[in-house]
Design brief:
The complex is a heterodimer of chains A (125) and B (303). Chain A has 5 helices and 5 strands. Chain A is of the alpha/beta class and 125 residues long. Chain B folds into 2 domains: 127 residues, no CATH class; 169 residues, 3-Layer(aba) Sandwich (Chemotaxis protein chec), CATH 3.40.1550.10. The chains are: A alpha/beta (125), B alpha+beta (303).
């Protein structure tokens, strides 16, 4: 898989961000992590850093992950955004896809699923 | 998920102390069920017969089953059945308490009978019926307060007990729920659920308990109260409420929305008149789970 891939993680929980970074670091060669603690911050960090892959939580203060996805994909149609949420309901899933997210992960996050997503969206085999 | 409620039953009958109970629960995974406990539970042997066989075992070099058959306390097909059954975890809890000396076999026999009758538990039901049975347990758990709660709330609480087993550990005992209209906080995280079932939910505990709780949730060692500890409590309640939302959506096609969870500075939480607190004892401390209609939105909850 791609080396030094830039990964943006938007989640208001420092623990959730750490856990996701730990999992990703198992499978990627020296990834570069960018973190955001709310949806608004995620949008501005996205514009500054143009990450290769973005993980966004839905329930966040200031601006939620769905709205952030919408804002990011409006400006960058090729943005690769994966929603990671504890509320994987049909409605949220539909909202995420309509906002332009490419995938949806139900929390608690399973390591193998993250691995599959990294292979799928960052290439390799 | 029966041991937790059997523990709660034992406390309500003053049969054991909380200390004895948490000790017995914390050793649940180290021990296996004994044939004698199982035989007593199935009604094949009395406590006296089990005591006698146990005594004889110390003098004769024979298995429990062998002696029981010789004495005509068990038939061979009963023994085979016992050897092939999986025992419910509350039985193991009872056995631990006997081994610790907190209960005698005779006391356990009586308490098991009382618990099963009270909860109409039948032994050996198919595993796919377990969710209904645990719902029934949760229902009885609230009925003992004299204030049964609506079905949505039962689903919510049933899922909470499951999530505690899943993410924190099975070694807890829920105490009788208390209905209150305000709550004095220790370290308290709240999360509002809006939409179909508007609720104020909260988890509260002493900071030291929070450190241990977070350690289990995050599978990390924490020595002090830091931002990861806070995040662990927030993540747990957010995950639980999220899974509840998924559950409601899948089963009833009803959607709930969540506000971000957060620490409340309020010394006293104002609650609605249907609010309740469930104290949950873990070996590392007691956590308090609080559920209330959103103040001011009680009228909408049936909508």
């Amino acid at each position: 898989m791609k080396e030094n891939a830039k990964i943006l993680i938007g989640d208001d929980s420092i623990l959730a961000r750490q856990q996701l970074k730990d999992v990703i670091a198992l499978y990627l060669d020296s990834p570069v992590f960018i973190e955001a603690a709310n949806g608004k911050e995620a949008v501005s960090k996205y514009e500054e850093e143009k990450p290769d892959l973005t993980f966004l939580d839905i329930v966040m203060p200031v601006r939620d992950g769905i709205l952030a996805t919408l804002e990011i994909t409006k400006k960058d149609k090729d943005a690769k955004i994966i929603i990671v949420s504890s509320i994987g309901t049909q409605k949220q899933l539909t909202a995420a896809v309509q906002a332009g997210a490419i995938d949806f992960v139900q929390k608690p996050v399973k390591d193998e699923l993250i691995q599959q997503l990294l292979v799928k969206y960052l290439g390799g085999e | 998920m029966y041991a937790q409620f059997f523990g709660s039953y034992l406390l309500s009958k003053n049969a054991v102390t909380p200390k004895q109970l948490t000790e017995a629960i914390s050793h649940l995974s180290d021990v296996h069920i004994k044939l004698g406990t199982l035989a007593m539970h199935m009604g094949y042997m009395t406590a006296e017969e089990v005591n006698e066989v146990c005594f004889l075992q110390t003098r004769e070099d024979k298995h429990f089953g062998q002696i029981a058959i010789e004495r005509n306390y068990l038939f061979e097909d009963q023994l085979n059945e016992l050897l092939n059954t999986q025992s419910p975890d509350y039985l193991l809890l009872g056995q631990n308490l006997v081994d610790m000396g907190a209960l005698t076999n005779n006391q356990l026999e009586e308490l098991l009978l009382g618990y099963q009758q009270e909860n109409e538990l039948k032994y050996g039901t198919e595993s796919n019926e377990i969710p209904d049975e645990t719902m029934q347990l949760v229902n009885k758990f609230f009925e003992q307060t004299g204030r049964p709660i609506p079905k949505n709330m039962l689903i919510y609480m049933n899922l909470l007990f499951n999530d505690l087993v899943r993410f924190i550990g099975f070694d807890f005992t829920p105490l009788t729920p208390v209905f209150v209209t305000s709550y004095d906080t220790n370290y308290c995280i709240t999360q509002r659920i809006t939409g179909v079932l508007p609720l104020l939910t909260a988890i509260d505990m002493e900071p030291d308990t929070a450190i241990a709780f977070a350690g289990r949730y995050a599978k990390m060692d924490f020595n002090e109260f830091n931002e990861y500890v806070k995040a662990s409590l927030e993540d747990f309640i957010n995950l639980h409420n999220g899974l509840f939302s998924v559950n409601m959506s899948n089963t009833y096609s009803k959607e709930a929305e969540l506000d971000p969870p957060g620490h409340t500075e309020e010394k006293s939480l104002k609650l609605s008149d249907d609010a309740f607190i469930v104290p949950i004892i873990y070996p590392f401390g007691t956590i308090y789970f609080i559920v209330s209609s959103l103040p001011g939105e009680e009228d909408k909850k049936e909508a």
